[in-house]
Amino acid sequence: MARRDFRNEIAKNRRDSLLLAIFISIIVFGLIFSMAYIFLPEAVYISIPLSLVLMIIYTWSSYQYGDQIVLSSVGARPAEAPEYTYLRDSVEGLSLAAGIPKPKIYVIESEELNAFASGKDPEHASIAITTGLINKLNRQELEGVIAHEMSHIQNRDIQFMTLVAVLVGLASILSHIILRNFRFSGGNKDRRSRGKGSGAEVVVLLVGVVLAIIAPIVTRLVQFAVSRRREYLADASGSELTRYPEGLASALEKIMKLNTGKMDVDEAVSHLFFADPNHSPLDHLYATHPPIEDRIKRLREM
């Protein structure tokens, strides 16, 4: 892929990221407003601007600290031990080749072969790698995976992918609260039967419940849209960094053979990973990663 094509893809990533961020923010705002209306119906005119303020604060804090939230959620720890010297050297060398600052390096205790990059920009980026990946790949394969994650940083995928992880998690939490309240309160019959204005209240409550039901599905589809094309781009640009596509292709083959797909990772952050950490019967509908076989085929055609 020509360098001009990479620049075009990066520009398209930014445009798509903005549109998808707005879309998810609208869903989250609707959930926040519905929850405020359910619990504080008398203060509905206060809850609208309050919801907007909360959304702005949450989005800003997610952008600033989302990578630390994600790293904490998977139990990642800094790769400071002597046995990770080669890992640190590889990350430093590939960051020089990519022309970006050296990201912080973290290790996740897991026999699964996986990795991810996160952060608000290349100057504040992190790469986390499982111990299984470090122990079971040879040097060329490990460098191929690191280069792939480095490309996510270089191509500026990480800002939006990290933000999506936090917003999807928030949407899931709000959906659960709304549905739990509706289930145990019976739809709050007292509020619906107060007479004047009850019709509008019923509409708002129903919209909130519908949003709570569809939000996890819609946000999962957004993860699908975000992740698939960016994985192909990172495979291609990562191979350009190492000048050895076979290293990454071989790593993918090992991942396909050795991974169980049962890594203890929340679905909200699964799209960040190099390979899908969680397998489910619905993967063919909204898997966050393209099929590994297709990725290997594309790499070996380069």
Q: What's this entry about, in short?
A:
69% of the residues lie in helices and 6% in strands. It is mainly alpha-helical and 302 residues long.
Describe the structure in your own words:
With 302 residues, this protein is mainly alpha-helical. It has 2 domains: 3-64 and 163-300, no CATH class; 77-154, Zincin-like (2-Layer Sandwich). Helices cover 69% and strands 6% of the residues. The protein is built from 11 helices and 4 strands, in the order ααβαβββαααααααα. Strands 1-2-4-3 form a 4-stranded mixed β-sheet, with helices on both faces. A hairpin with a 5-residue loop joins strand 3 and strand 4 (125-130). Helix 1 (3-39) packs parallel to helix 6 (158-185), helix 2 crosses helix 6 (158-185) and helix 6 packs antiparallel against helix 8 (198-242). Residues 191-197 have low confidence and may be disordered.
